Amino acid sequence: MKILVTGGAGFIGSHTVVELQNAGYEVAVVDNLYNASPKVIGRLEAITGKTVSFYKVDIRDREGLTKVFEQEKPDAVIHFAGLKAVGESVRKPWEYYENNINGTLILTDVMRKCGCKNIIFSSSATVYGDPAFIPITEECPKGTCTNPYGWTKWMLEQILTDLHTADPEWNVVLLRYFNPIGAHKSGTIGENPNGIPNNLMPYITQVAVGKLEKLHVFGNDYNTHDGTGVRDYIHVVDLAKGHVCALKKLEPGSGLSIYNLGTGVGYSVLDIVKSFEEATGVKVPYVIDPRRAGDIAECYSSPEKAEKELGWKAENGIREMCEDAWRWQSMNPKGYED
Ligand code: NAD
Ligand code: WQD
Predict the structure, then answer these.
(1) Which residues are near ligand 1 (CB < 6 Å)?
(2) Alpha carbon nearest to ligand 1 atom 6, residue
(3) Which ligand has the nearest atom to the CA of 82?
(4) Fewer CB atoms inside 10 Å of the end CB: C or N, the chain?
(5) What pTM, to 2 d.p., does this model score?
(6) Using CA atoms, how far apart are residues 54 and 195, in angstroms rounded to an integer?
(7) Is residue 214 a contact partner of residue 287, using CB atoms and an 8 Å limit?
(8) What's the rounded Cα separation, in Å, for the pair 318 and 68?
(9) Strand ranges (DSSP E) for the chain?
(10) Active site includes 300?
(11) How far is the C-alpha of 80 from the C-alpha of 78, rounded, in Å?
(12) Is there an atom of ligand 2 within 6 Å of 270 CB?
């Protein structure tokens, strides 16, 4: 079975390519390298010992994408390609709607014209907005997003659902990720944010490696056990394995399925700082700053549905997540630029 991975040179996509190849799938990658390095492909091949068919193609390039489908004839698509920076999406909403929504419309049009109607889509816990209840099950109503990035996920879930409703030959899996962190054990692939990181773990690793002076903790007056925001952090390799398990929901007649991919455990910002220091022996200086606009107090999943229906469960704990994030950062202080 051949899987086409859009955005396969990015953080989650690259880890998923490894797990797909380890599980015996043939893989082709499409990525425009807007937020990824071409070095990733060589590193993937070094990890798995297998070749990766790589196409530097933008998913909005209908002609280029059609050629890839004609050449590769994939059975299914795992669709990671998109823009993902929350703050940037507030400043550049048009670019986010254009890339994420238009890109997915063109991708799915090419797919149906080439007879491939199986897709796994990278959605996000952000679609729950400020969640109606916690732990968040898949039945939790979708909420109000606080930024254009979140709305693209919200809308794309609806678009893919409507495609399936109109044409039941489409098999669609919507995977709602919680907070992916960590890196492959080899320390050769990992998260490589542009500029100053927005997300907590890359910020911490850059403080630890000396690139940034101290962590700014965004608020300590939330209604949580220590006042700082609580999230469900998940090891990116566990997340990647979730995609391999989700492929079984693309069998003919599977229809539409939705799964949370999280651990079910919430950690506060200060819990993460402490876990990182314990796991690595490196101190992370921090200051308390005001709350960040749009943040919620607490967000963690109920991962039960994925366990029951996909046989998938996150295996790595917070210690491994910190150790592996640190191995990647310390072996590659400049990311893929080294
Ligand atoms: P990433 O930026 O590392 O990977 C996305 C990849 O898509 C990049 O390699 C980029 O170059 C590529 N890309 C972007 N636009 C493209 C286009 N038009 N054509 C071809 N390639 C394009 O991000 P990631 O963290 O690996 O996230 C992967 C997916 O998961 C994204 O859709 C993201 O929104 C979603 N997601 C991420 C998180 C997270 O915290 N990292 C959480 C929930 C959901
Ligand atoms: C985690 C916690 C911050 C940075 C975002 C997106 C979400 C999803 C994952 C894609 C919060 C605190 C952070 C810092 C801090 N992405 N923090 N100092 O906000 O849960 O989710 O990434 O879909 O859509 O919104 O993740 O890592 O930014 O923040 O105190 O420098 O760490 O306030 O409590 P978040 P995060």
Answers:
(1) 6-7, 9-13, 31-36, 58-60, 80-84, 99, 103, 122, 124, 177, 180
(2) 7
(3) 1
(4) C
(5) 0.99
(6) 26
(7) yes
(8) 39
(9) 2-6, 26-30, 53-55, 76-79, 118-124, 171-177, 179-181, 215-218, 230-231, 233-235, 256-261, 267-268, 286-289, 298-299
(10) no
(11) 6
(12) no
Quick one: tokens of 168?
Answer: 């039941």
The gap between the terminal CA atoms of the chain, to the nearest Å, is: 35
Q: At a CB cut-off of 8 Å and minimum separation 6, what does 206 contact?
A: 197, 212, 329
d(CA 182, CA 163): 34
Check if 234 has its Cβ closer than 6 Å to any atom of ligand 2.
no
Residue 235 phi/psi, 5° resolution? -65, 135
pLDDT in tens, the chain (338 residues): 999 999 999 999 999 999 999 999 999 999 999 999 999 999 999 999 999 999 999 999 999 999 999 999 999 999 999 999 999 999 999 999 999 999 999 999 999 999 999 999 999 999 999 999 999 999 999 999 999 999 999 999 999 999 999 999 999 999 999 999 999 999 999 999 989 999 999 999 999 999 999 999 999 999 999 999 999 999 999 999 999 999 999 999 999 999 999 999 999 999 999 999 999 999 999 999 999 999 999 999 999 999 999 999 999 999 999 999 999 999 999 999 86
Distance 86 CA to ligand 2 centre (A): 9
Question: Which residues neighbour 67 within 8 Å (Cβ) at sequence distance 6 or greater?
Answer: none
Distance CA 214, CA 186 (A): 27
Please name the amino acid found at residue 255: G
Q: Is 206 in the pocket of ligand 2 (CB under 6 A)?
A: no
Best probe residue, ligand 1, of 11, 79, 123, 258 (max atoms within 8 Å of C-beta): 11
Q: Which of 149, 177, 203, 267 is catalytic?
A: 149
User: Distance from the CA of 11 to the center of ligand 1, in angstroms?
Assistant: 7
Distance separating alpha carbons of residues 278 and 284, to the nearest angstrom = 11
Compute the residue count for the chain. 338
Amino acid making up residue 284? V
